[in-house]
């Protein structure tokens, strides 16, 4: 098979021909139809996440067809599945036993600690492959497997918030905005200063207001969600929420948060992070996304153009999600 391989941190991916790895019991081999590109892939490439086992095939938003099954599993050859960030868990630690498998003490992650979907084929643990509808469009569905799921988990952390400030209007935010507006929530979209195309994109998707991250929204929000990996946005987000509001950090990596005055946190404002995802998140998210008619705006690239897709994402040239197609 062909795969885009990261051989060392801070280096371009290399197109390589590799043998298909053998299956262990409980695993499936998936022919990848599409794999969306995530900002976390940039963090893996840049060495900003610890203990990356080079060489590694990135990619954790893959959609494909099961072509081989090993051992007993609910999946069968011909099923369409999604391979998200969470690749497996130990199943025995206190977090797994307590229904919080996203905090597992010994997890694996697709495209980070195990080979992912920037390839023609991927091997996955059958129990952690998400069953999809046979009629689902692979390109449109791929971004839902991380950008959609992390956005959904972030939204759940805001409780009943009716007005939300969203910082960083990229892959996750453009999906989440569609769900929020379908539920009658009000969205304020914050972008990099001067990024008027992203602000226009946010308004197209129903945002009631869109502006730069150094502006104030029309009124305080009930909650804020930060998708941009910029720690300096935390105090800015706190400044946009009302008393008792919550600020949710939705990324796996963020630059250092600067010191800020206690008054921004006072009056029972809360600051929380979202870590990974659970299989239950997918169970609740996909029906909600279908009800809301969520559609990802995608920009497709051939597999061998993975570096171009990553560079475009890093430079902010993509409004929506880049998707690799083998």
What does this structure look like?
The protein has 326 residues and is an alpha/beta fold. The chain folds into two domains: 2-144 and 295-325, Alpha-Beta Complex (Quinone Oxidoreductase, Chain A, domain 1); 149-273, Rossmann fold (3-Layer(aba) Sandwich). 24% of the residues lie in helices and 26% in strands. The radius of gyration is 19 Å and the shape is globular. It starts with a strand and ends with a strand.
Number of strands: 17
Number of helices: 9
Counting structural domains, the number is 2
CATH architecture of the largest domain: Alpha-Beta Complex
Radius of gyration: 19 Å
**Which percent bin holds the helix content?**
10-25%
CATH homologous superfamily caption of the largest domain: Medium-chain alcohol dehydrogenases, catalytic domain
Pick out the low-confidence regions. none
Q: What is the CATH fold-level name of the largest domain?
A: Quinone Oxidoreductase, Chain A, domain 1
């Amino acid at each position: 098979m062909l795969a885009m391989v990261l051989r060392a941190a801070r280096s371009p991916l290399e197109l390589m021909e590799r043998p298909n790895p053998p299956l262990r019991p409980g695993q499936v081999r998936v022919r990848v139809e599409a794999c969306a590109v995530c900002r976390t892939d940039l963090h893996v490439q840049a060495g900003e996440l610890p203990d990356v086992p080079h060489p590694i095939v990135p990619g954790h938003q893959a959609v494909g067809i099961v072509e081989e099954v090993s051992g007993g599993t609910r999946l069968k050859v011909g099923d369409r599945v999604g391979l998200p960030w969470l690749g497996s868990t130990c199943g025995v630690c206190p977090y797994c036993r307590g229904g919080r498998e996203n905090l597992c003490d010994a997890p694996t992650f697709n495209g980070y600690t195990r080979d992912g979907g920037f390839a023609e084929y991927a091997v996955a643990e059958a129990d952690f492959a998400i069953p999809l509808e046979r009629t689902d469009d692979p390109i449109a569905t791929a971004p839902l497997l991380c950008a959609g799921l992390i956005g959904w988990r972030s939204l759940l952390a805001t409780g009943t918030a009716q007005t939300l400030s969203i910082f960083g209007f990229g892959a996750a935010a453009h999906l989440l905005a569609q769900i929020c507006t379908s539920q009658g929530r009000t969205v304020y979209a914050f972008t990099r200063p001067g990024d008027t195309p992203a602000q226009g994109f946010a308004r197209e998707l129903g945002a009631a207001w869109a502006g730069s991250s150094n502006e104030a929204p029309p009124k305080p929000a009930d909650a804020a969600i930060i998708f941009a990996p910029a720690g300096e946005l935390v105090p800015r987000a706190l400044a946009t929420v009302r008393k008792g509001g919550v600020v949710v950090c939705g990324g796996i990596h963020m630059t250092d948060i600067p010191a800020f005055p206690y008054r921004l946190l006072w009056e029972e404002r809360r600051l929380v992070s979202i870590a990974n995802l659970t299989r239950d998140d997918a169970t609740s998210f996909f029906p909600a996304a279908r009800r809301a008619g969520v559609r990802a705006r995608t920009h497709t690239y051939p597999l061998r153009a993975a570096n171009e897709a990553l560079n475009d994402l890093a430079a902010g040239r993509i409004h929506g999600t880049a998707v690799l197609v083998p």
